[in-house]
Specification:
The complex is a heterotrimer of chains A (about 300), B (about 425) and C (about 170). Chain A is α/β, with parallel strands linked by helices. Helices cover about 40% and strands about 20% of the residues of chain A. The chains are: A alpha/beta (about 300), B mainly alpha (about 425), C mainly alpha (about 170). Bound molecules: sodium ion (2 copies). Chain B: It is found in: Cell inner membrane.
Chain lengths: ~300, ~425, ~170
């Protein structure tokens, strides 16, 4: 039996349900061979401590946001920049094997990154001021996630780190002028639609959920069990696309119903925005990955 | 091992270790190490335990704890607090149980200066009890109100315990700080009401005496100079948090900074005040933070053993009204409060209580605020409420521990009534926080 | 032996001063941050994160000093009720267990620091700093605490102090 801990509890967060889907797949495909038992989420270990706890062997399987690995596996969330439908191209691909090696060096077995289709269920900016161009962000105060802070800074805005529980108050009282959030991930359950005017319909990065295992534990599994885990992951990556599409649709409908306005950018402005977003993140990866890794990942992520 | 075996192992070894008189923080640490050995496996587990020690206190959410402690320490050592009591005394005219009422009022005012019960009882006890003795007050009327007033320091913002509770429970520090205001004021009013009624019925326990009249001009001037400025600092802190202009961390740092400025303006900030104030604040902060280093590990191990989930299931399957469960949980806190110190109670109970409250669909803020009153009461519940011992240390020679217990009793009842009211009428706790977004 | 004790006391006092300075610095840094935001409409990055690190340093640098002052929270239900002789025995045993725990933590946390450095673990927040920066004070602080526990046991053994008559401050 493998013990699984995740960054968030099932049910509340659609991203957490990706982890649950993986567990269900493994338990169905692996009957009699391998089984995953869910231990808990942030009630068991603080989310930001979980990646190191996985390496330390406190539990065996983990799900959460890819960028939670940033501190432990430098560049471990680089599939955020992937142009492919399945961010890591799925088990067996060159890109997937690159990720496996990157994580293995730190004692982790990379299992997979499940996300929506390109531009679905990803990071968006929501604001209380109209935005027609990236220039409008200049010197605004924006709440960021670790992943989006590079973009916000590159856009000339002030980045403020706040936990999700503080976003409502900060938006309502103008402590921040906007914030980044993967909209599909239960945006309206936090009540933010009542204190936010605009959602900028400009998708950034891939978001989604990452699944990983303790490397020693993985090595101790039979090839048959390993195979089941990879099959389960492939199924989950397939399933995640529909799941995020459904949630994004649901969330934007609720946001509009609450009076929020969805702003679109012109194709030129959209292209500028995307360029700044991607370039700033690449610039960050250049500081944490050595030149050789960086070159091969750039090649892998632009191939095909 | 079954979850209940872990539970028994955790709590019995914790109790045993605490009995040896070792610091509570180290007892938690040892239990965590044993638990890690069983559950997280070897060195990897110990490694993780060390990381959890770091994560438990390296967060800006807890920064208001040392800030509020520093603020209170400077207020006391610079004599600002003492001046405020003197001003309050000038305003209080003829009234049944005058000095007892003054004790409550002073406790409430001191409560706005400090986040800890520290010193509040000690200060009021050493300044007011001799005076009460001289005026022929009965022990019940001299000691009781001072004990009760110490709790107000915990209940009226700023409150160190509220921040610890909120950060451990993972709920909004701002809402807990705002939510305890109404119960704090209610407690003060209920105590004053009790004192006046009792002293009117039984004038012999608090003989009336002539009060020297202070000219109105002098009263107003002293109020303006010595009462308004320090209280304004607290009002600024609360306003900043309430309106969201600043985070609780920023508001706390700002309030502490303004306290230093005020001490300078009063020309009271000399080297001795600085050394004593900062020194005692550092000591007290470390004392609280080091207990918190045991927190992450302890609640994680409870979660990992399955005990938290099993107890939650047990409680939700138990076919009684949720309110009964809330009452049972509060009774457990009352019981623990007789023996151990409040931060430790929070550490032990919150990891178990909070999942249950959430599973029952009750409001954690409401529950947390009720718990605050209960924890505040724990300072005066016999046999081991710490304020009781502070009182013993400074009360007149002929005072026995029994005198102190008896004096505390009516005020414990008042606290229990307040807790009952808060359970029955959630709007008492939720009205102010609900005005916040 | 006595000279050694004096040196140790000097170290504890020095670290206590550092802890106090950290406390005041935390306040000033946050005030400066508010001021910058108010007047220059631009905050300083990372003050909150640095404050978090300072909390760890303040706590672990000062912990042994607080123990020497008998300032930690203890439960004296049993020890307070015992007669002088048995009480000393219990307090000595408690101190020795405390010393054992702290020295063990010192050992394991030193290992944790080494592992963290070897793995190259970073804190992925506003300021990307090695996690070991946070952690390194834990072995130092718990080592000092362990030594102070041994000294506490010796004090109880010699009967230099009875359990403090002073009521302890509470939160
Ligand atoms: Na207070
Ligand atoms: Na008590």
């Amino acid at each position: 039996t493998l013990k699984m801990v995740g960054a968030w509890a099932h049910g509340f967060s659609p991203t957490a349900d990706v982890g649950k889907n993986f567990m269900d797949n493994v338990n169905r495909l692996g009957e009699g061979v391998v089984k995953i038992q869910y231990i808990g989420a942030d009630d068991v270990l603080p989310p930001f401590d979980q990646p190191e706890a996985l390496v330390n062997g406190v539990f065996d399987v983990w799900y959460g946001a890819p960028n939670y690995w940033a501190g432990v596996v430098p560049g471990g969330d680089i599939t955020e920049l992937s142009p492919f439908q399945t961010p890591d191209n799925g088990p067996g691909s060159d890109l997937y094997n690159f990720m496996v090696d990157l994580y293995a060096a730190k004692g982790v077995r990379y299992i997979g990154h499940g996300a929506g289709d390109l531009g679905v269920g990803v990071h968006y900016l929501s604001t209380n001021f109209p935005v027609a161009s990236i220039d409008d962000l200049k010197s605004m105060k924006l709440r960021v996630a670790p992943l989006t802070r590079h973009f916000i800074q590159a856009a000339g805005a002030e980045s403020i780190t706040l936990p999700p529980s503080e976003i409502f108050l900060a938006m309502d009282r103008g402590t921040v002028d906007g914030f980044s959030w993967p909209v599909a991930d239960a945006f309206t359950r936090y009540g933010w639609q009542t204190v936010t005017k605009y959602m900028i319909d400009q998708p950034m990065y891939r978001s989604g959920a990452s699944i990983a295992m303790n490397l020693d534990k993985w090595d101790s599994l039979s090839p048959e069990a390993q195979d089941i885990l990879l099959k389960a992951m492939a199924e989950t990556q397939e399933w995640t696309r529909g799941w995020f599409a459904q949630n994004l649709e649901e969330q934007t409908t609720l946001m509009k119903a609450a009076g929020m306005e969805v702003l679109s950018l012109t194709p030129e402005e959209s292209a500028r925005w995307t360029k700044v977003a991607n370039d700033s993140l690449w610039a960050y990866y250049a500081t944490v990955l050595d030149a050789e890794h960086l070159a091969s990942i750039k090649a892998l992520l632009t191939a095909e | 091992m079954e979850w209940w075996a872990y539970l028994i192992l955790f709590f019995s070894s914790l109790a045993f270790l605490m009995m040896t008189g070792m610091p509570v923080a180290i007892a938690f640490l040892l239990v965590n190490m044993v638990g890690v050995y069983f559950m997280w496996g070897g060195t990897g587990g110990f490694n993780q335990l060390i990381l959890s020690i770091d994560s438990s206190i390296s967060t800006f959410v807890l920064v208001p704890v040392p800030m509020f402690i520093l603020m209170g320490a400077i207020m006391f050592h610079a004599g600002i607090a003492q001046r405020m009591i003197a001003v309050l005394d000038q305003w209080l005219g003829f009234i049944a149980g005058r000095l007892a009422v003054l004790a409550i009022g002073a406790g409430a005012v001191l409560g706005t200066l400090t986040g800890v019960a520290m010193g509040s009882v000690a200060m009021l006890g050493s300044t007011l009890t001799p005076e009460m003795e001289k005026r022929g007050y009965a022990k019940s009327m001299s000691l009781g109100p001072i004990l009760a007033s110490g709790g107000l320091a915990i209940l009226i913002p700023p409150s160190t315990l509220a921040i610890v509770l909120a950060s451990l429970g993972g709920f909004s520090v701002a809402k807990i700080l705002i939510g305890i205001i109404v119960p704090g004021i209610m407690l003060a009013v209920m105590c004053i009401g009790y004192i006046i009624i009792r002293c009117t019925l039984q004038p012999e326990i608090a003989p009336l005496y002539e009060v020297k009249a202070v000219p109105m001009r002098e009263k107003l001037r002293d109020t303006l100079f010595y009462l308004v400025p320090p209280v304004s600092i607290v009002v600024i802190i609360i306003a900043c948090i309430f309106t969201g202009v600043a985070t609780p961390t920023e508001a706390a740092a700002l309030g502490t900074f303004l306290t230093f400025i005020l001490a300078i303006l009063y020309r009271k900030l000399n080297g001795e005040v600085l050394v004593k104030g900062i020194g005692s604040a550092t000591q007290l902060s470390i004392m609280i933070l080091i207990i918190l280093t045991g927190s992450a590990g302890f609640s994680q191990l409870l979660g990992f053993s399955g005990a938290t989930a099993a107890l939650t299931e047990l409680a939700t399957d138990w076919n009684v009204h949720p309110i009964v469960l809330v009452i049972v949980m509060q009774l457990i806190v009352v019981f623990l409060g007789m023996f151990i110190e409040q931060t430790s109670i929070v550490l032990i109970t919150i990891p178990i209580f909070l999942p249950i409250i959430q599973a029952l669909g009750l409001d954690p803020i409401w529950f947390g605020i009720i718990m605050m009153v209960n924890l505040e009461m724990a300072t005066i519940t016999p046999p081991f409420g710490l304020s009781l011992f502070v009182m013993k240390g400074i009360a007149p020679r002929n005072t026995t521990m029994g005198d102190i217990y008896r004096a505390a009793l009516p005020f414990i009842v008042i606290n229990l009534v307040l807790i009952g009211l808060m359970i029955a009428f959630p709007s008492i706790t939720m009205w102010l926080p609900s005005l916040m977004p | 032996m006595k000279a050694l004790g004096q040196i140790f006391d000097f170290i504890l006092n020095a670290f206590a001063v550092v802890s106090g300075v950290i406390l005041v610095t935390m306040m000033l840094a946050t005030v400066v941050k508010i001021g910058m935001r108010l007047f220059l409409n631009h905050g300083i990055l990372g003050i909150d994160q640095i404050s978090g690190v300072m909390m760890v340093y303040m706590t672990f640098l000062g912990a042994a000093w607080v123990l020497r002052n008998d300032g930690h929270v203890t439960v004296d239900i049993v020890t307070g009720a015992l007669a002088e002789g048995p009480r000393r025995v219990v307090l000595i045993i408690g101190s020795l267990i405390g010393a054992f725990a702290c020295l063990l933590v010192a050992y394991f946390s030193a290992q944790t620091v080494a592992i963290s450095l070897a793995r190259g673990v970073m804190v992925a927040a506003e300021l990307e700093i090695p996690r070991a920066v946070n952690l390194v004070v834990i072995p130092l602080g718990s080592f000092l605490l362990g030594i102070e526990f041994i000294r506490r046991a010796m004090r109880f053994y010699r009967g230099d102090v009875v359990a403090s008559e002073l009521p302890r401050m509470e939160a």
